[in-house]
Write a sequence for this structure.
């Protein structure tokens, strides 16, 4: 195995909370069972939002209209943003340590408005030397485009990279590009998986 020089991280549900975690508050607001909430926020409209083909206002308007909810866009947006404040399992400290020896890269399927808020409230994200979001390219991680863009923009080889994500589908896409990949299952497991690839903290 060639020397690892670059580590590519997903953002939501790996470093900070994304939509996972809003279920209880949205359920209280709308009366919809918690186990149905994330499915209602997902789907094609979320993809369009992340590809910058729809604004957050349009996304929330469509959601409220489709579900016939009596809540406001502002109420939904506030709950979503409050959820973004949660950092996973001291992952911020891990990023700081890794960035001392490796080039850390952020690759995320995310909405422009949400990323602006997240970056404003999480200083540790400045440790990433390169950040690429789906709203910047119009492509998400089940396509190879953004992985190839990282390799091309930074003039690096796939075998010198590790990709970390909580989605098996995204992991599969990265592997198709020749990038070593780790399925994120928590801080402790990640440290163990990195050690097996020769990265010791």
């Amino acid at each position: 195995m060639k020397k690892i020089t670059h580590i590519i991280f997903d953002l939501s549900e790996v470093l900070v909370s994304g939509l996972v975690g809003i279920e209880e508050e949205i359920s209280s607001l709308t009366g919809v069972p918690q186990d149905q909430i994330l499915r209602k926020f997902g789907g094609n409209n979320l993809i369009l939002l992340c590809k910058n083909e729809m604004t957050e206002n349009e996304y929330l308007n469509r959601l409220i209209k489709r579900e016939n909810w009596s809540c406001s866009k502002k109420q939904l947006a506030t709950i979503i943003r409050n959820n973004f404040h949660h950092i996973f399992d001291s992952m911020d400290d891990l990023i700081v340590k890794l960035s001392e020896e490796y080039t850390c890269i952020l690759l995320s399927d995310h909405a422009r408005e949400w990323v602006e808020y997240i970056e404003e409230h999480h200083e540790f994200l400045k440790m990433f030397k390169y950040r690429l979001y789906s709203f910047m390219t119009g492509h998400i991680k089940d396509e190879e485009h953004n992985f190839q863009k990282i390799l091309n923009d930074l003039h690096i080889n796939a075998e010198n990279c590790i990709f970390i994500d909580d989605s098996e589908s995204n992991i599969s896409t990265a592997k198709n590009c020749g990038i070593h990949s780790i399925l994120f299952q928590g801080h402790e497991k990640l440290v163990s998986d990195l050690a097996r690839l020769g990265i010791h903290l």
Observations:
- The mean pLDDT is 97.
